[in-house]
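Researcher: We plan to redesign the surface later, but first we want a full-length starting point. C-alpha cells attached.
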C-alpha cells in the first residue's frame, strides 16, 4: 500500500516536473494565475511595469509595492516571482534582501538593476536571487522570459525537495527515524567489495514482550518504547554503526571494522543490560529486557544472508533466553524444530498430548515432602522431548498462550483434586505450576484463571502459582493487583528464578509473594565464596522479615544441600533429592508419606506435625 501511494505521489511529481520543463521549452506557454510582485520605490515605474506585463500576458496577477514599510512584509510572501528594483530610495534592495531573506528557503527573485558592481551581484546571488535584468533592457518581453525562467527554476527546486522528502520517507522509519531494511541492504552491498569480509558484522536486537505492550497499553506507548530503545541503543554502539529497523520492531546495526570477537564482546555487553524506561513520571523506571544476535560476514555471503543470519541468531537468543547468541549454521536446526512445534501445537493442546512431570520439594528442617513443581513435558513423535520454554514461546507467537496457561492450570488442579480424593495430599502441601510473564499479561488470562479456580475451589487451596521471568512483566503493579485477587481462593504466589536477570528485588515491591525460589546459580555461587554466602544470608533475613519462604532449586550435591542449610533456606528442590517424577511416581511418594503418617498415629496416638508446622 505504501509503495502504491508513494509511486502515485512520485508520478504526480514527475508530471509537475514535466510541466516545469515544458514551461521553459515553450516561451509562449502561459501559467494560469502566475502571481508576480513588483517592488519599486517609484510608484509610477512600478505601475508602468505592471501594465506592460499585463498587456503582454493577461494571465499574470500583479501586485505592486512602493511603500518601504510594506516591502519587508510582502517579501517572503506567497508569490511565484518577485521583480525587485535594487536601487531603492532610503533602503537599498540588497539591504532589504539581507534583512528579510536570511534563514528563509530560496525565494524567486529577479533583480532589476543598473548596479554593475560584481560584489553586489555576488552578494545578491548568495542571498538567493535567481536572475538579473539590467534596467535599460527591462523590456516586457525580456522580463517575461526571466519570469518564466525563475518560475521554472523554483518549480524544479520544489520538485527536488518533495522528491527527497519522499525518498527519505521510503528509506526511514517514521517512528524511530532509523534507516529501513532495504537501505541497509544497499549500504552493505556498497561495503562488501571494500571490506576485508571478516571485519564486517551485524547485530540484531529485539525487545521482549513488545506485543504484550501493544495489546495491553496501546500503539502510542509501544512506539514510545521503540523510540526510546533505538535512542538507548545508539548510545551503546560505535558512532559509525548504521542502525536500521525492520517492520517487526527488530533493530539491525551494521558495524564495520569489528572482527568476530569484538562484535561478540559488544553484543554480549549490550545483551546483558536491561533498558531503563520511564513508563510514567510517578513510577520508578522499568527495566525492559531484550535479546541480541550477531553474525559476521564470510567471503561469499550476500547482504541479505548476513542480515538473515543475525536475525536467526537473535531468534535463537530469544528462545534460549541467552543474553547474546552468535550465528552458526546449526541454529537453523533450532528454527526448523520451532516450525514443527508451531505446526503441531494446536493439535497437541486439543488432544491433550502435553503432560506434566512433578519435581518434589522437601523441608530443610524436617526432610518432609512439602509438595512439588509441575513441569511441562511434550514428547513429540518427530522431535522427541520439546523444551517447555519453546512450547511457551511458540504458544505466545501463535496466540495460544491463554489456552496453554489455562491448560496447565486446569491439569494441575485436576491432579490435586484426584490426590485429594485419594486422601494422599496433606494440609499445608503446595503443588506449584509455572506461569510466564507472557501468560500473565495476555488479555483474558486472569478471567480464564478465575473461572478455572472457581471450578476447583478445594484443590485451589493447595495451589501455588510460580511466576517465571517476572522481570519481563511490563506492568508489575497491575499484575500484582490481579494476583492478589486470586488470594481469596487460597492460591499462594512464588517468584521463580530469584536472583537472576529474570527476577529481582524490585519485583517484591509489587507482588506479594508467599515464596521466593532462589535460582540454582545462587547456590552454585554460594558454593564458591564466603562473601556470596554472607550476601545470601542477608537476603534470607530480609525475605524472612517480610514473611516469605525461601526455596533453593537445583540442589545437586551434598555440599549444596549443606550450604542451603547454612544460609537458612526453608525448602529444597533438585536432582540430589529427586529428579522430576512422573505423576504416578509422585503419587507413590505421597502414598508412602500417608502410610508413614498412619504408622505414626498407630505408634503415638496422634498425627505428626503437618508440613507447614
Ligand atoms: P523452572 O521453573 O526454574 O524449573 C526448574 C528447571 O530446572 C526444570 O527444567 C527442572 O527440570 C530443572 N532442574 C531441577 N532440578 C535441577 C538440578 O538439580 N539441576 C539442574 N541443572 N536443573 C534442575 P525444565 O523442566 O526443563 O523447565 C525449564 C523451565 O521451563 C522452567 O524453569 C520453567 O521456567 C519453564 N516451565 C516448565 N514448565 C512450565 C509450565 O507448565 N508453564 C510455564 N509457563 N513454564 C514452564
Ligand atoms: Mg519454576
Ligand atoms: Mg526456576
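Model: Full-length starting sequence:
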Amino acid at each position: 500500500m505504501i509503495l502504491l501511494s508513494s509511486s502515485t505521489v512520485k508520478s504526480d511529481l514527475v508530471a509537475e516536473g514535466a510541466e516545469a520543463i515544458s514551461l521553459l521549452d515553450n516561451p509562449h506557454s502561459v501559467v494560469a494565475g502566475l502571481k508576480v510582485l513588483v517592488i519599486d520605490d517609484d510608484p509610477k515605474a512600478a505601475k508602468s511595469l505592471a501594465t506592460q506585463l499585463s498587456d503582454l500576458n493577461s494571465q499574470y496577477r500583479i501586485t505592486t509595492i512602493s511603500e518601504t514599510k510594506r516591502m519587508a512584509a510582502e517579501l517572503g510572501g506567497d508569490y511565484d516571482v518577485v521583480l525587485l528594483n535594487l536601487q531603492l530610495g532610503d533602503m537599498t534592495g540588497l539591504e532589504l534582501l539581507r534583512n528579510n531573506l536570511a534563514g528563509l528557503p530560496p525565494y524567486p527573485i529577479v533583480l532589476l538593476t543598473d548596479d554593475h558592481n560584481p560584489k553586489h551581484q555576488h552578494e545578491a546571488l548568495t542571498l538567493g536571487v535567481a536572475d538579473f535584468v539590467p534596467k535599460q533592457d527591462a523590456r516586457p518581453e525580456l522580463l517575461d522570459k526571466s519570469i518564466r525562467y525563475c518560475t521554472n527554476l523554483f518549480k524544479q527546486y520544489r520538485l527536488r525537495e518533495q522528491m527527497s522528502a519522499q525518498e527519505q520517507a521510503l528509506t526511514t522509519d517514521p517512528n524511530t527515524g532509523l534507516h529501513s531494511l532495504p537501505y541497509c541492504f544497499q549500504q552493505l552491498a556498497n561495503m562488501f567489495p571494500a571490506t576485508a569480509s571478516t571485519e564486517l558484522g551485524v547485530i540484531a536486537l529485539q525487545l521482549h514482550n513488545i506485543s504484550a505492550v501493544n495489546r495491553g497499553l496501546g500503539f502510542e506507548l509501544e512506539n514510545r518504547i521503540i523510540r526510546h530503545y533505538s535512542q538507548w541503543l545508539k548510545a551503546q554502539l560505535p558512532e559509525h554503526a548504521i542502525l536500521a529497523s525492520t517492520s517487526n520492531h527488530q533493530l539491525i546495526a551494521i558495524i564495520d571494522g569489528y572482527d568476530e570477537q569484538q562484535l561478540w564482546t559488544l553484543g554480549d555487553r549490550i545483551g546483558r543490560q536491561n533498558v531503563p524506561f520511564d513508563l510514567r513520571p510517578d513510577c520508578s523506571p522499568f527495566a525492559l529486557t531484550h535479546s541480541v544476535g550477531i553474525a559476521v560476514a564470510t567471503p561469499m555471503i550476500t547482504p541479505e544472508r548476513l542480515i538473515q543470519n543475525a536475525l536467526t541468531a537473535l531468534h535463537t537468543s530469544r528462545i534460549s533466553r541467552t543474553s547474546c547468541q552468535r550465528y552458526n549454521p546449526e541454529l537453523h536446526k533450532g528454527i526448523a524444530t520451532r516450525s514443527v512445534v508451531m505446526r503441531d501445537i494446536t493439535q497437541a493442546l486439543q488432544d491433550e498430548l502435553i503432560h506434566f512431570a512433578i519435581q518434589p520439594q522437601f523441608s530443610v528442617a524436617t526432610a518432609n515432602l512439602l509438595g512439588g513443581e509441575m513441569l511441562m513435558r511434550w514428547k513429540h513423535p518427530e522431535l522427541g522431548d520439546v523444551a517447555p520454554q519453546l512450547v511457551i514461546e511458540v504458544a505466545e507467537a501463535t496466540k495460544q498462550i491463554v489456552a496453554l496457561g489455562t491448560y496447565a492450570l486446569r491439569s494441575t488442579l485436576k491432579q490435586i483434586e484426584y490426590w485429594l480424593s485419594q486422601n494422599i495430599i496433606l494440609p499445608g502441601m503446595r503443588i506449584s505450576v509455572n506461569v510466564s510473564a507472557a501468560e500473565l499479561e495476555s488479555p483474558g488470562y486472569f478471567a480464564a484463571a478465575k473461572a478455572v479456580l472457581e471450578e476447583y475451589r478445594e484443590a485451589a487451596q493447595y495451589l501455588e502459582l510460580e511466576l517465571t521471568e517476572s522481570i519481563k512483566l511490563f506492568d508489575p503493579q497491575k499484575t500484582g493487583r490481579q494476583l492478589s485477587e486470586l488470594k481469596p481462593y487460597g492460591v499462594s504466589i512464588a517468584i521463580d528464578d530469584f536472583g537472576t536477570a529474570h527476577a529481582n528485588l524490585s519485583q517484591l515491591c509489587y507482588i506479594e509473594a508467599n515464596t521466593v525460589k532462589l535460582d540454582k546459580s545462587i547456590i552454585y555461587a554460594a558454593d564458591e565464596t564466603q562473601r556470596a554466602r554472607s550476601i545470601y544470608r542477608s537476603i534470607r533475613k530480609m525475605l524472612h522479615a517480610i514473611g516469605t519462604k525461601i526455596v533453593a532449586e537445583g540442589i545437586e550435591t551434598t555440599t549444596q544441600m549443606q550450604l542451603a542449610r547454612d544460609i537458612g533456606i526453608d525448602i529444597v528442590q533438585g536432582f540430589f533429592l529427586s529428579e522430576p517424577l512422573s505423576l504416578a511416581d509422585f503419587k507413590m511418594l505421597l502414598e508412602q508419606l500417608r502410610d508413614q503418617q498412619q504408622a505414626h498415629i498407630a505408634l503415638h496416638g496422634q498425627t505428626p506435625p503437618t508440613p507447614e508446622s
